Amino acid sequence: MKTEEFDFHQVPEDIPHDPVELRGKSRESGRMIVLDRSKTSIEHTVFSNICDYFRPGDLLVLNDSYMLSNTLWFQNGDEPAQLTVYGHEPDSTTIVEIKTDHRLIKPGLVLKSANNDKLTCTLLESQPDNLWKAKFEPLELLVPTLDQHGIRLDENIHLNPTYWQNERQAYRSVYAKSPGSLEIPSAGLHFSKELLDKVIAKGVEVAYITLHVGATEILAVRHISAEEI
């Protein structure tokens, strides 16, 4: 089984490219599908009604991560290099896409950040889909450098560059506080502060976790076959 077997055609016009707030609507106005497992029924409603489905004593777990820019400029001597970050590996390495003179790309190549002279990136080994495993040093400088100087380049998330630069709060949940995701943690994006207060007032407990979302999870299973599962 491969993830490509689950591909389906989607009409581009049906894909929202900007948050609802930037389209003149409220966060709560997003559409919602409710599956009632006890009745095996499906209901179509709007997110503003989500409070109706909670009971006192329920636990609502929310991810407080928010999406960063994912692309930075580096230098290889006088040659510019554009690096797009896809995610982090358990061994503290990072999966990146690099765009520069292809003749210069090889294992061991060390690139210097154009925005932070203390940050470097060393290419370690090539990966499928024209990606590279790389090591940023010091790694703790990567997130703040992306947050302050990065831009968004995406195949699947076509953001309006002006909105992204000037209206970033619209791309974050109202409770987000931890930078680190490379794609939008969208599960709670439609909560407004007022709606969340309403849920809490009903007696629902709220717990926060930090779970950064990256493309590595998708890339890691793209080539898995049934024999490997």
Molecular structure report:
This protein is α+β, with helices and mostly antiparallel strands and 229 residues long. The protein has two domains: 3-7 and 20-67 and 159-218, QueA-like (3-Layer(aba) Sandwich); 71-149, Beta Barrel (Thrombin, subunit H), CATH 2.40.10. It is 13% helix and 31% strand. A six-stranded antiparallel barrel has the order 5-6-7-10-9-8. The longest helix has 9 residues, at 193-201. It is elongated, with a radius of gyration of 20 Å.
> Strand pairing plus helix content: what structural class?
alpha+beta
Query: Helix count?
Result: 4
Estimate percent helicity. Answer: 10-25%
CATH superfamily of the largest domain: QueA-like
Helix and strand run = EEEEEEEEEEHHEHEH
Which features does this protein show?
229 residues; alpha+beta; QueA-like; 2 domains; six-stranded antiparallel β-barrel
How are the SSEs placed, and which strands pair?
Layout: E1 31-36, E2 41-46, E3 59-63, E4 65-67, E5 71-76, E6 79-88, E7 94-99, E8 110-113, E9 120-127, E10 131-137, H1 142-149, H2 161-166, E11 178-181, H3 193-201, E12 205-209, H4 216-221
Parallel strand pairs: 3-12, 4-11
Antiparallel strand pairs: 1-2, 5-6, 5-8, 6-7, 7-10, 8-9, 9-10
Describe the structure in brief:
Pfam families: Queuosine_synth. By secondary structure, the protein is an alpha+beta fold. The chain has four helices and twelve strands.
